[in-house]
């Protein structure tokens, strides 16, 4: 039997992505085959296509996450029909990932859940929630009543982090480079939407003269110095994204680069860093209307090139989700 899947032949333009018929993969003991109902698209897959990923094999079915139901799970505690998400652990890099009607992943990368939310909503959650939750808890140790600046607020991760921070009881400032999206930030609970012209530290300090308690840097190293300048003494900046596609700081000299007393950390996580209870609570809150992780733009599998183009050109805000519509 065959399935439809997206294959990336190698680094390059969107034309290197194509939808093909491939054999449905067989799970080994300890692995789980998931019938994919939805998968989120991430900057990680864009970076893979642009040639920035290390240790990736080609051709590959990309995709570091997938949402669906268990189709087969030999030697595991999971049962067919169970709702699950899967993420990371080599998906879409070391082995074929979630851009397909079926994907096979190690049991350790799978988190079960229960929800009646639409698949396009469920598909937007796993990796974004994992990174937002980990950035706030591990990267920033954010506390109720503190202030948070999100640099890159209209990304999927920006919206999700704002929602979790507000749920925690923090005051949120978030940036966008597009004036038309300031209202979107306000509509999604951001207390102080800020227009980003490359230098927002002065705007932040007009609101908070001492600077923010914490800042999440999602744009990358070009804006990192200004984000550090917006943060108070003994505050923390966490680097967790690279929307600019720029990773490194040339000739990094810490004493000159880092403001006195401002702490710089980083965050990247795995499926094991998202507790199942945190995932379930977020899904329950979304269903109840008390939490939103931001806008969702959906694409059929055949429009995967359009989805990548829209992400690369920042044509959409929030999360892109593909719906492969596998057979039931």
From TrEMBL:
GO molecular function: NADPH binding; oxidoreductase activity, acting on NAD(P)H
Residue ranges occupied by any Enoyl reductase (ER) domain in the UniProt entry: 12-322
Listed PANTHER family: QUINONE OXIDOREDUCTASE PIG3 (PTHR48106:SF18), QUINONE OXIDOREDUCTASE PIG3-RELATED (PTHR48106)
Protein known as: NADPH:quinone reductase-like Zn-dependent oxidoreductase
Annotated keywords: NADP, Oxidoreductase
Origin: domain of life: Bacteria
Organism: Catenuloplanes atrovinosus
Gene3D superfamilies: Medium-chain alcohol dehydrogenases, catalytic domain
Entry keyword annotation includes Phosphoprotein: no
